[in-house]
Amino acid sequence: MSTNEHDRIRRQVREAYGAVARAESAGCCAPSSGCCAPSDEAVAELLSRGIGYSAEETAAVPEGANLGLGCGNPQAIAALKPGETVLDLGSGAGFDAFLAARQVGATGHVIGVDMTPDMVSKARANAAKGGYANVDFRLGEIEHLPVADATVDVILSNCVINLSPDKAQVFRDAFRVLKPGGRLAISDIVTTAELPESMQKEVALYTACVAGAASAAELEAMIREAGFIDIRIAPKDTSREYVSQWAPGRGVEDYIASAAIEAVKPVN
Description:
The protein is an alpha/beta fold. The protein has one domain (3-264): Rossmann fold (3-Layer(aba) Sandwich), CATH 3.40.50. The protein contains 11 helices and 8 strands. Strands 1, 2, 3, 4, 5, 6, 7 and 8 form an 8-stranded mixed β-sheet that branches. Helix 1 packs across helix 6 and helix 7 runs parallel beside helix 10. It starts with a helix and ends with a strand.
């Protein structure tokens, strides 16, 4: 894929999620939209509860932080500890970053990176509203992170890497910023069968977290090539009903599933 094609895809994704941040439209996980964020807070909570977040978690963040954008709960596999530095790839309005901030505490630090200016502005406003002194939101691409080498303990991401046109570079840069022994804790979409060519080329399905997905085997190869070890990718059969709502009547649930993705950067 050419550099121009990469830029075209990023522009389409940025425009789609900018509209979500401005509440002009719903995103990929909203049943009524076909694209990942309902504008209604109650619907967002229901969606989040359906993918593994507890009522306590959805109630713990500032109003407007939970846009219902995810496809799983990376917090459940991250095993965050007080004092750790956490990086959230594609942090949106800050939902997972704020939950991580509660776990790492005042001695820890959370960095959220998003390439959509409207999302970064929304997340920063939510941080101010919630009084989160240990969270920092930065504008940037997840392929080229505005983060120093070997400074992060844990990388989270929730239904974002599938949107990248250069996933291998995402994992290479993730490896760069992680400390030795640092770990990935990711929820994302994987393909379970080859997508029809017509679906692969459909812009709405790319921004809907469908057309840009890679297979578990492809992702494992990218992650291993980046230098990670102890790689685990676990697709969830239970996500079938949930993902079917992203493009009602299109049968996308026959081709994709949510998955938990874990890996570790070697100590030596």
